[in-house]
Amino acid sequence: MNRSSPSPSRTWLADGRAVRCDTVQTATHTLATADGYMELYEAAPDGDAVGAVIVIQEAFGVNEHIRDVTRRFADAGYHAVAPALFHRAGGGEAAYGDMEAVMKLFAGVSDDSFLMDVDATLAHLADAGYGPERTGIVGFCMGGRVTFLVAARRALGAAVGFYGGGIVETGRLPFPALIDEVGSMKTPWLGLFGDLDTGIPVEHVERLRDALDADAPVDHEIVRYPDAQHGFHCDARPDAFNAEAAADGWARAIQWLHRYIA
Predict the structure, then answer these.
(1) Is the pTM of this model over 0.90?
(2) In 3D, which of 167, 251, 255 has the Cα closest to residue 212?
């Protein structure tokens, strides 16, 4: 990889606080897709990595928070990458809560485009020595749904979705529900949800759990946090961040990746 100077990263303490820790090597690449070029943010540990992780952005783009999360995975020993999925609309980011800007960034985005971009990312990681079985995918918000999509249609080592909406029923973003694909899932999937999430009712979470338990041919788990709302892992959003749920969710995500990849 084309390396830049080391970047500071952060990880979670037991109480959920994010703190600076060892440096990681970061770089930005440009990957070719059938729909044009896509930027990829990359962070890797100084030593050998235990595997690779694809970090899938929220609906607000690959912003500083997503880049920071990517560095946290590198601190945890993974070669981590975050593809910028909004390249079809010219790229960029939207401020938290600015849904008008978000919808403009969604121009040209579809489930087929998500898979196209993930496939390009997987090819990049394969060139770096990480096959699909050594690669996990972790996503947040919109990205949480993308991890379920990928788990249903691609065979990777592991997948984790933080508060992924629109899996059980179509949500406010323009994508179809995915619950009917549980019977064809190819990748072990962990779903993390907050009970106070107004966009993902507890009823939907339990319907998803029931469907997975009944039909999924892969390992799966769903965890609910009674006092957490949407975005509970994002410490860049004080109105949503829940330190206890964030710390527990991060620990579970790392354990899930270690279980199936390391």
Answers:
(1) yes
(2) 167
Spatial separation of the C-alpha atoms in residues 174 and 151, rounded to whole Å: 20
- CA-based radius of gyration for the chain: 17
Query: 141, 220, 233, 234: which is the annotated catalytic residue?
Result: 141
Is 141 annotated as catalytic? yes
Of the residues 75, 197, 235, 248, which is catalytic? 197
Pick the catalytic residue from 204, 230, 235, 248: 230
- C-alpha span between 119 and 115 (Å, rounded): 6
Judged against a pLDDT cut of 70, whether residue 114 lies above it is answered with yes
Question: What is the per-residue pLDDT across 145-176, written as a single tens digit (0 to 9) for each?
Answer: 999 999 999 999 999 999 999 999 997 778 99
pLDDT 10s digits, 63-80: 999 999 999 999 999 999
Burial of 33 (0-12, 13-18, 19+ CB in 10 A): middle
Task: Determine the Cα–Cα distance for residues 147 and 60; give it in Å rounded to an integer.
Answer: 16
Q: Per the structure block, which two tokens stand in for 146?
A: 């993308």
- Total count of residues recorded for the chain: 262
Residue 234 known to be catalytic: no
| CA max distance for the chain | 49
